[in-house]
Design a protein that fits this description.
Oligomer: single chain
Strand content: 5-15%
Shape: globular
CATH superfamily of the largest domain: Aldolase class I
CATH topology of the largest domain: TIM Barrel
CATH architecture of the largest domain: Alpha-Beta Barrel
Number of strands: 11
Order of helices and strands: EEEHEEHHEHEHHEHEHEHEHHHHH
Largest sheet: 9 strands, parallel
Length: 349
Amino acid sequence: MLDIGRVQLAHPFVQAALSGYSDLPMRRIARRCGASYALNEVVLDKLVLQRGKKQRVVMDVPPDDHPVGGQLMGSDPDVFAPAAAAMAQAGYDVIDINFGCPVSKVLGRCRGGYMLSQPAQAIEIVRHVIEAVGRTHPVTVKMRRGMDDSPESERSFFTILDGAFELGASAVTVHGRTVRQKYVGASNWAFLARVKRHVGGRTILGSGDLFDAPACVRMMRETGVDGVTIARGCIGNPWIFADCVALWRGEPLPPPPSVPDQGRVIAEHFRETVDHVGEQKAGHVMRKFGIKYSELHPGGLAVRDAFIRATTTAEFQRVLDEWYAPDKSWPATRRREGSGDLIAAGACD
């Protein structure tokens, strides 16, 4: 088990917050496939406080969406705190502070990963959020290992890390790349091991290059982190959570999902999306998920191209009917390989 403050998780494999992806339908599917905990996609603090459709979507936390983390991003401690309180009141179990997003437009507005270059301001944000909700809700922080590879950047990282724990943060997630790296190059797992040794018994979750269950378990064993947050590796592959749990328990990997099994989960994801955004938008929203789901299909590239062409709900359904029909004889499936290159450039985890 893994504890994040008073929130107890069944196992240490978490669905990360993914901008543009980890909406309610994705979280529900991840849970049904074995995720112990899921985070909502990152939300700008100001949007939480502005009445409107976006606010209503963010504040909708149904009974089956627990435990769930609400991830916030911004730069003003005085706005962050009431936004955190509003998310806590809406039903989020954990409030997560994003100091890691490497997307250029986010950095240009002095948010996300930019805060790693402003340790005093970052610590003030943590202080304000913990003062606002810390008595009732765990507060966690998401970081990258610095803005860049400079000694100054590393010092700022550890200043924020130590400051967050001293103020009462329940856990910190560390992605092993710098902000400047974005998603280029390998995640530095040796740095994660240093961080874990540095904090001792405090809770560290690792992130970066987790595209299959063996990698997730290997990160925990090699670095000593208390858990892992699976980001790009779980888009289109919610079965990764059951795989992780099996390996962690010393059991063999379950067989890869058959084509009909994949189709059932995709259809379920599709229905959830129709309920969430409406039939008119569901096909467009699901297209990016379909592209990733296709990587597990034995007809990979052809299925991917079919999903790329599917821009409406009816077209998406036709892809399911053609490529995932349960009454056809399909070749054996394989586990997904690769490094998430099909993720949209604007995605941030």
